[in-house]
Amino acid sequence: MLEISFSAETLPQGGALALLVPEGAEAPALFKSLDDATGGTLSRAVKADEFTGKAGSSTVVLAPGAGFDRVVLIGVGRAEAFEPKDAEKAGGIAATALGRGEKAALAVGSLPHAAHVALGAVLGAYHFSLYHGAPEDDKTHRLASLTVLAADAAQAEAAWPALSAVARGVILTRDLVTEPANVLNPVEFAERVSTLRSLGLDVEVLDQPAMEKLGFGALLGVAQGSDAEPRTVIMRWNGGEKDDAPLAFIGKGVTFDSGGISIKPAAGMEEMKWDMAGAATVTGLMAALAGRKAKVNAVGVIGLVENMVSGNAQRPGDVVRSASGQTIEVLNTDAEGRLVLADILWYARERFAPKLMVDLATLTGAIIISLGHEYAGLFSNNDNLAGGLAQAGEITGDKLWRMPMGKEYDALLKSDIADMKNIGGRPGGAITAAQFLKRFVGETPWAHLDIAGTAWSSKPRNGQPKGATGFGVRLLDTFVRTQHEKA
Ligand code: BES
Ligand code: MN
Ligand code: ZN
Known about the structure:
CATH topology of the largest domain: Aminopeptidase
Strand order of the largest sheet: 7-8-10-9-13-17-14-15
EC number: 3.4.11.1, 3.4.11.10
Number of helices: 16
Largest sheet: 8 strands, mixed
Bound molecules: ligand BES, manganese (II) ion, zinc ion
Strand content: 15-25%
CATH superfamily of the largest domain: Zn peptidases
CATH architecture of the largest domain: 3-Layer(aba) Sandwich
GO cellular component, one term: cytoplasm
Active site: 264, 338
Helix content: 25-40%
GO molecular function: manganese ion binding; metalloaminopeptidase activity
Number of strands: 19
Function: Presumably involved in the processing and regular turnover of intracellular proteins. Catalyzes the removal of unsubstituted N-terminal amino acids from various peptides.
C-alpha cells in the first residue's frame, strides 16, 4: 500500500507534485509561488490547455523547472461543493498522474478532507502485481510513498488511522476479487480470512460435514460438482456493548461460476472468477471495522462454493432442501448464488438474531441491464434500512438504487413439485432473485445489494484503476459509522 505522510509545509522541494486546483476561485498560493519560480511556465500551461479547475480535469506539466520533474494540476470543481467523495476522486486522479517517481507530494492547500484525498490516492495507486514477471522491479517502479501537504495537516493526520484501515479493507477486497479461481478456491479463501484473526476478528470455519449437519442442502447442492470443498466462514467483531444484537453482513462467495450443467457461454466466462465479490466485500468490511476498532458488534457470514460441471454436478430439475426446511426445485443450475445465500441468510438469522442483515452478491445479469455500472441494486423489506443504506451510498459514491419488490413478483417462483423454484423467468430477473432471498430472512430487517454491475470495472473510473472496485466496503463502513456507532 502506498505510504502516506502529512505535512503542513508549503513548499515542496522538487520531484513530482500534484496540486489540487478549485474552479472559479483564486489560484492556490503554491500555484503562484511555483509559477514565479518557473518563470510563468505553469500559467502558460494552464492557458494552453484551457485548464479551469473543472472537477475531473487535469493537466500535466513536464519539467517546468525549479527542480520539478512534473507538476500535475488536478481540477476539483467548486471549493464550496468539495465533499469527501470528491476528495477521494481527486486523490485517485493525482496518484495516477504522478507517475512512478521516487519523491512525490500532493498539495491540498486550504481545501478540506485531506485525509480523504490520501484515501483516494492510496486506492488510485492500487495495482495487483502478484503474477507479473520480476515483481521486485515492478515495485521499485511504482509510487511507494506520498506526502500530502495540507493547511490542516494535523486534522488529516488524526483522521488517517481510521481511513487507512478502510483503505486496507478495500485493498483486501480487490485482491481477493482479482485472484484467479485456480488459486482462490473456497478452501484457500477461508484460509485467507483466517489470517484476519491478527486484527482481533473472531473467525470460525464450517467445513462440509459441519454444513451437512446444519442441513445446508441448497449451498451443498451447488458445491457438489466441484472437487474443491465448500466452506462457510463466520467473522465476528465485538466492539460494541456486550448484549447489543449484531449487525450481520452476508456475502455470496462463488469462487468460480461456470453455470454448472446449465453452462454459460465461453465468451466472458473468465469474468466469473469474481463471482465471490460479495464475500470479498464482507471480508474487507470486517477487516476495516476491526482495523479501526469500530464501536459496534458485527458479524460477517460468507458462503464459499465453486459452481462446476462434473458427473456429480447438480442437475436441472433436482430438488434440494434448504436449512430453513423449505424445498427448492433447481430449474437452472446457473441461478446458484441465491441457493448459497438461502442457507447462510437463514443461518445468520437463526444463530445471531441480528439487528439487521445486509447481503451482497453478484447475483444477476439482469441488474446490469436495469442499472448499468453506476448504481448497485438495493432491495429491502424495511424502508428505514433502505433509506440509511442509500444515504451512505450518496456520501461515499458507492451508489444504490432501490428496486421494487412485491407479492406479484414472488408468485413467479411457484413450483409444481417443491416450495419454490430457483428462477422466475427473464422479466424482472433481479427482482425475482431478491424475492427468492426474502423467503429466507423472516421478519429481520434485511437489504440485498446486487453488485453484479459494480464489483468490477472494465475501464478506469473516478481516479480508480480498472478491475476489482471494492464497491461496498466504504459504503457499509460509512453506514456503520454514521448510523450504528456511538460517537
Ligand atoms: N453470477 C451470475 C450473475 C452475474 C452475471 C454476475 C454477470 C456478474 C456478471 C449469476 O450466478 C447468474 O448466472 N445469474 C443468472 C440467473 C439466471 C439463470 C436466472 C443470470 O443473471 O443470467
Ligand atoms: Mn450463475
Ligand atoms: Zn453466480
